[in-house]
Structure formats: C-alpha cells, structure tokens
C-alpha cells in the first residue's frame, strides 16, 4: 500500500473517531502503531505518528469516562430508584 | 459396493444416535429425584416493603440436615463442616426465634418445613399481633389512643413470620410419602457416625422459587409499565391481589342503576371470604373465615322463606368480602364504589350494619357484640347502636346463646365494618366469640383447620354420611345463625310475630361445614355447580380435600373464578333462588327471553342432584346473587404508594420446583475439572506438535504407494 494512502486512511479514521466512535481510534492505534513507530522513517511518517498519538489520547479519555460511568451505574442503579429504572434498557428480574 | 456399505453405515450411525438421544434423559432421572408436591412461600409486596421468600435464579442447593434437636441447630449454624445446609425442619422448630437465626446466617441455603400435627406447639400464628393496623379505622389522625392495638392486642400469639423477608426459599412438606423419601436419603448418606462428620457423597436438595418482583409495589408496577411500553417481549413482574365479592339482597336491586336509590334503607350483614398463611395458596382458615361464611349462609337460608311471605320495610343486603386479610381489599373497594356512585346503593342508603367475625370457638360461652366507641360519641349513632343491641338481645330469647358487651372504650376488632366507618358513621356491631383477644390460637396459619374448630366426625362413616352428620359445632353455629337472622329481621323492621318461624337448619350448617372444612368434592356441592365444572376432573375447582381461602390473582391470570367465590355464589343461588324452566342457551342469554329480567336477577345453569342411574337433569336457577370486583382502589387510581388503600401484589415467577440428589465434595469436583482441563491442554499440545511435524511423520507412509507401481 503506498504511503499516501496509508496517511489518508489514518487521517480518515482519526477524524471519524470524533463522531462518538472510539473504536475507530482503537483500530487506528492498532493498525498504524508499527507504521508510526517501528518502521524506518519516510515522508508521511511524522503526520501518521501525530494522528496515532492523538487517537491514543482520545481512546484513553473515552475508556476512563466509560469505566467511571459504568462503575457508578452498576453500583448505584438500585439506589436511584425511579431514575435508575428510566436509565436502564433491561432491568434484572428479582434483584434490586 | 463400497458405496452401499457406507450408506448402511451412515444409517446405522443415525439410528444409534437417535436411540441414545431418546434414552439419554434417563441419566437425569438416575441423578435427580423430583419432588412433585411442592408448597412454596412466595414474595408479596405492598407500598413500602417486600415480604416472603426468594431463591437464586438457578435454585438454592444445600446439604440436607434434619433439625430435630438443639444440637442440630448448632451443627447447622456453626459447627457443621459442609455449609450451606438445606434444613428439614420439624414442626416444633418452626417458630420466630429459629427462623430469625436462620435468616441472619449465611450457612443456610433454604428451609423445608414438615407440616404435621405431631410436635405442634400450643399456639402458632404467623400473622402480626395487630392485623391490618394501618388501614383500619383507628390511626394517628383518628383516635390514636386506640390505634396500633394500644388498648387491646387482638392476636397475642402472632409472631409476624408471614411479614418477614427471607432471602432463601422456604417450602412446606405436606405429603408424608415424599417426606419419607427425603428422610431415607438423609439417613442413608448424611447421618453422623459416632459424632464424626458424614463423608461425601452427601444427600442434597435444590429448591427453585425465583421471584421476579423486588422492593415494593411502586417499583414493581413502574418496571412493569416500562416493560409494557418499551420492550418487544414485555415481562410482567407482579399482579395485584384481586377477586370478587359476593352479594345478594332480600329485595332484588337493579344492578344497572348505580348510585343512590330513592326510598331504600338497607341493613348490611357482612362477613369475610378469605384467609392466608405463611405459604402460598394454603389457607384452611376454619375459625378465621369458615365460621363466618357458614353462619351467614345459614342466616340467609333461615331468613328467605319469611322475607318472601312478609317482607320487612327495610332491605337486607348480605355481602361476603374477599381479600380482608390483605388490608381490606374487598370492603375498601365496595366503600369506594359507594362513594363514587358506582354501586347499586350508596352510603346514604345504609341504615346499619351487622358483621360476623370469628364465632366458631364459642364453646358454650357468650357471644360478644363489639361496637366502635368513636362513632358512639355521636348520640344519634349511639341510640341506633343501643337499639341494634336491644334487637339482638331480644332475638336471643329462647335460644341457648348468651350475649355480652365488651367495655365501652374498647375498639372494634379487625373487621370490614371499620372501612365503612372510615367513610360514614354508621351504627353497627361486630359479633365475635372473643372479648379482648382472639380465641383462635392458630389465626391465619396452616393449622386453622377442622380440628381447630372441633369439627370431628366419628370413624367409619362414609363421605355421604359425614356430609349430613350434625356435629356439636354445627348445632352451635345453627343457633348463632338463628340469632343473627332474627336480629336482622327485627332490625329491618319486621314483625315480632314472625320471629319464631325463623330458624336455621342444622343439616344445612353441617353440610356447609363438611364442604368448606373437610371435602369440597361432595355430592351436595356437585349438585349445585354447573355440569362443566363437575365433569372436569382433577383440574377443576372440585379437586379433593378442603378448599383453600387465599385470594389469588383473579380470573385474568389464574383461570376460572376462585373456587370459594364460586361455591358461595352457587350455594346462595341454591338457597335463595327459584327454579325456572329455561333451556341452557336461554339461561346463558336471558336478555333474549321477554319474561326474564337480567337487571334484577342472575341466571345459573346447575347440575341438579345426581340421580340413581347416573343421569343428570340440569336446570336453570334465577337468583339475585351478584359478584362485584374486589381489587384495591389504589390500582384503579394508580396510586401504588397509597397509605389509605391496600397495595398488596404478588410477584410472578417462572418455575417452582424441588429436587434431591447426591453431591460430591468440592475437592472431587475441582479435581475432575482440573483433569479435564489438563487433558484438553495436552490434546492441543499434541495436535500442534503433530501438525507442525506432519511432513516428517507422514512422509514415509506416502512414499510406499509410489514404490509399488
């Protein structure tokens, strides 16, 4: 695959991740990590490197936010009563 | 040729697989012994709490241990080496202290209670000490000195077990044969030998009773609504307790005209139709409920001939309230309908009220007339109450029933009359066999049965002979019924000269007692009910044994109308109705026939007495007996957290069953798992090794065919 195409793919995945799609950033990091940091240098590499770094940052932020929210929700949903029920998609039977 | 052989091989393989699949379920039968006769304890919820029992979604398993002595209790709770335990509890240990210790212990997986009369304590009532204390007449706002049983504790033997929340399943073992199977398994495997612990494999039991609803009615109904609105496959979590009240009147009332009836003054005679116990759908309720039902039915039977010949000025309205054990469901609904002008009469039509409470355990003592001191502070009400007491006293002349009054400031016992007084101050009395606390030592428990009411039959009587045998209790209740009938006739303004003609028939009382306490599938009940019910066999309401008086969830969910409601309805049709010569289709659709009036009467197609050669001749009975819905107004108003009305609901569940089997020790299970995982890893390793060295291993084999050519 020519380097210009790699750069444009990396950019597209980076921009797409802003549409609340952190998985695109994860894929970006996994695919282009070798390209950005382990291959010998070529012209497009610094830009790919910056995209990968920014995708990784966004990914870590998303993971932190989601983990916090999921922990809080799982722990406190029962205590929230009505609000908890309205926020839930499926409510387990027989337990609070 | 090879082709044919391979096809036959394939057919043989398929046939073997088919047989193994069909026979493979027998392995499950070799492991598990299913216990078919299970009586669970289920979860009930009200506006603020949940009560009852809950199991895990995949059942609770525990090693069996029979609780017979105190040392067994220590073994289960602290010293036994194989927790959690499934406790098989002897009757004597089913009390509050033991159950609360089990509730707080993590070593108890569940309890199976042996229900028998051996070892039964002198008194056992799982109900609270103050029944229906929050929904009666006396509360913090109205006469707080009489509220919460401050003056009189009505049920002193109550231990409140029915109102506790257990996080493990509790089942009842009623079938003696099944209990024997469990005991045998226990004795074969779980007994301690010379004080040392028993060794694996041990006998264990698994109980499934996973309840869907949690927390309280408000949460459960909210979640049901959410499911109904947003889910593709809605899951209902709980249902309100509901059924029907049964009512009739001496002068038929127009059921299509609702609200106040001009120039109609009504005397209400009421009693309750339901009971409960700790376990689901078990409620023999002999002294608590049957005594009242039988007496009121006999009263109606005594009054009807005379009210036909010489109708009194006032109408007499008889009603049987369903659901009174759960915060007065039936009576609160009727009062609510009367207030909303949605019933055939309204509260301004009511002149006075006479309620029959628990009257079965009189034993020759006095009958007590309870009245409400709060409403009697009003002088006009007080005069009417004194008048009613005078009528009852004069009706007792010539009968062997003595009457007495409790002290003036004593409140009313828990009764439907309290709900009427909440709406309007009506003069009335509640008749009971007790003064300050119940005579019933087994109130709302599984042991409130015929024996508790002293209804016993001599041995060697056939069922038909038992049906008509007049016990002492039958004669005593017939006397009370005569008293009530005469008092009602006088209260309704009837002439005193007719009073001596009003007598209750002890034979009818004896038949009613037999049908409601011992065996509901008897010849008299069968003659009263429609032919499709009597023919249905075991699944109908005429299964063997006494009827159970738990209210249940109503016809939408539980099939036909509750059995007790049906029985009372058809017995009333028999006692007060008249035979018509309508055909079956006319009986089902009486509006098509000009001479019949659907507004004033109901029409019932009944079997009739079974004749000698087995042929039945069903006929149509016309009677002014009606059913009215008994569901708490809280569910119509959608006020699920209501403090004024009953909010009781029953949880739904998927399966309730029990089974026993042998369990191996944890170490053996882990060892088996470990060996399995090791074999898996080893086989993966060998496969990887073989596949990577494939050319080396199989190349010599491939060379040989080439050399032969």
Automatic annotation (TrEMBL), chain A:
Spell out where the chain crosses the membrane: 12-33, 56-73
As for family, the record states: Belongs to the PEN-2 family.
Does this UniProt record's set of keywords contain Nucleus? Answer: no
Membrane association type: Multi-pass membrane protein
Name of the protein: Gamma-secretase subunit PEN-2
Q: Which UniProt keywords apply?
A: Membrane, Notch signaling pathway, Transmembrane, Transmembrane helix
The protein's matches in InterPro entries, at most eight in alphabetical order, are given as: Gamma_Secretase_Asp_P_PEN2
Q: What is its main location?
A: Golgi
Glycoprotein: present as a keyword of the record? no
Q: Write out the annotated subcellular location.
A: Golgi apparatus, Golgi stack membrane
Which Pfam families does the record associate with it? PEN-2
UniProtKB/TrEMBL annotation, chain B:
Q: What SUPFAM superfamilies is this protein classified in?
A: Zn-dependent exopeptidases
Location of this chain's protein in the cell: Membrane
What is the protein name given in its UniProt record?
A: Nicastrin
Please provide the record's keywords in A-Z order: Glycoprotein, Membrane, Notch signaling pathway, Signal, Transmembrane, Transmembrane helix
Q: State the membrane topology.
A: Single-pass type I membrane protein
Q: Which CDD domains match?
A: M28_Nicastrin
List residues traversing the bilayer: 670-690
Organism field: Cirrhinus molitorella
Stated family: Belongs to the nicastrin family.
Q: Which domain of life is it from?
A: Eukaryota
The record ties this protein, via Pfam families, to:
Ncstrn_small, Nicastrin
Q: Does the keyword Ubl conjugation apply?
A: no
User: Which residue range or ranges hold the Nicastrin small lobe domain?
Assistant: 40-213
Q: Which residues form the signal peptide?
A: 1-24
